[in-house]
Specification:
63% helix, binds zinc ion, 81 residues, mainly alpha
Length: 81
């Protein structure tokens, strides 16, 4: 009796392993996107690599303004080419 139950359980585990053996390509893609480094900059302090709500630095409007100008400048150049 118990042996039968164990065999059934093992079959279920095998099925489970089969289902989870091939990784979902979609979830892999999402992982890659999350691993990608944040390319923007903070709108509060102007430093790269984090966003405003993660900011722990002091506000630097001058640097933010400079970055915004550089960004729109690059966008314009990109459009012309
Ligand atoms: Zn910041």
């Amino acid at each position: 009796m118990l042996y039968e139950q164990v065999t059934q359980l093992q079959l279920m585990v095998d099925e489970f392993k089969k289902e989870h053996k091939s990784p979902n390509p979609t979830s892999k893609l999402i992982q890659n996107q999350q691993r990608k480094k944040f390319r923007g900059f903070c709108y509060k302090c102007g430093l790269d690599g984090h966003v405003m709500h993660q900011c722990t630095s002091e506000a630097n409007p001058t640097l933010v303004q400079e970055k915004l100008c550089a960004q729109s400048e690059a966008g314009r150049q990109h459009k012309e080419v």
